[in-house]
Write a structure and sequence with these properties.
globular, about 230 residues, alpha/beta, Rossmann fold, eight-stranded mixed β-sheet
Length: about 230
C-alpha cells in the first residue's frame, strides 16, 4: 500500500505490511528524522513476519526537504512551519484518533524515539486506550538552546512526563543505546523510576542513538513488546 493519508494536518505513512492482526503499533520518530527510517522499517518487517501487528509510521507535519538541509535554528523553524511542542502533541493525538476510527484495533501500541518518546509519554497521560509502549531514549528535558527552536517551545516541565508514565497501567519497555551521545541515559532512568506497572523493563541495548549499528536489536525489542 505504502500510501500517505493527510486529513486536517494528520500525516500517516501506512506501510504495505498491514497484516491480519487485531493489533496496531504506531512508530513516532525523533525531531529531525523521517518516520520511515531504517530501524523502523526493519522493526516493521519483523513484526509483520510474525503476524504480531499491523504497523503505521506516524510523521508529524514537516517539510522533509527543508529539514534535510537545516543547519541553523532559523532553518529548523522553517522546516516545522512555526509549530511548537503542543502542536506536535495535538497532531499525534489526532493521528491516533484516525487509527482508532479507521481500523478499530483491539489493541494499540506506541513506539516513540527520542523527541517522539517524550510525545508518546505525554499521550499516556491523556488517553486510556493504549495497551503498551516502547520508549527509545525518551527526551523529557530540553536545553535552553533547543527551546528556542519552535518544536521545543511550550515543552512541558519534566514532572508532567513523570506523572503521565506513573498513571499508565499497560506494558512498558524502555531501551537506551549504550553508546548514545545525544540523549543522556538519565532521561530513561528518571522516567523508568516512576513506572508503576509490573510489566516493565529497561534495557541498555548495544548501539548508538539511532541504532544504525544495531538495527536487529532495536527491531527485536519491538517484537518482544508485542508477544
Amino acid at each position: 500500500m505504502n500510501s500517505k493519508c493527510e486529513e486536517r494536518g494528520i500525516h500517516i505513512v501506512q506501510l504495505e505490511r498491514v497484516v491480519n492482526s487485531p493489533n496496531f503499533l504506531v512508530f513516532v520518530q525523533g525531531s529531525w528524522e523521517v518516520a520511515d527510517n531504517q530501524r523502523n522499517l526493519r522493526a516493521s518487517q519483523m513484526i509483520a513476519d510474525e503476524m504480531l501487528a499491523s504497523t503505521l509510521l506516524y510523521e508529524s507535519p514537516r517539510n522533509r526537504l527543508s529539514l534535510q538541509k537545516a543547519t541553523t535554528n532559523e532553518d529548523w523553524q522553517a522546516a516545522f512551519n512555526g509549530r511548537n511542542y503542543l502542536d506536535e502533541l495535538e497532531s499525534l493525538l489526532a493521528a491516533i484518533n484516525h487509527l482508532k476510527n479507521e481500523y478499530r484495533p483491539q489493541k494499540i501500541f506506541l513506539s516513540g524515539s527520542s523527541y517522539g518518546g517524550g510525545l508518546v509519554t505525554l499521550v499516556l497521560g491523556i488517553r486510556r486506550d493504549i495497551d503498551g509502549v516502547l520508549l527509545h531514549a525518551p527526551q523529557i528535558i530540553a536545553s535552553e538552546e533547543l527551546k528556542r527552536i519552535n518544536i521545543y517551545q511550550e515543552m512541558p516541565a519534566p514532572e508532567r512526563y513523570l506523572e503521565a508514565i506513573a498513571g499508565f497501567s499497560g506494558k512498558v519497555r524502555m531501551i537506551h543505546g549504550d553508546k548514545d551521545r545525544v540523549i543522556p541515559l538519565q532521561h530513561s532512568l528518571t522516567l523508568y523510576s516512576h513506572v508503576q506497572t509490573t510489566d516493565r523493563k529497561l534495557i541498555l541495548l548495544p548501539g548508538n542513538h539511532t541504532f544504525t549499528d544495531n538495527l536487529a536489536g532495536y527491531a527485536q525489542e519491538h517484537v518482544e513488546l508485542l508477544r
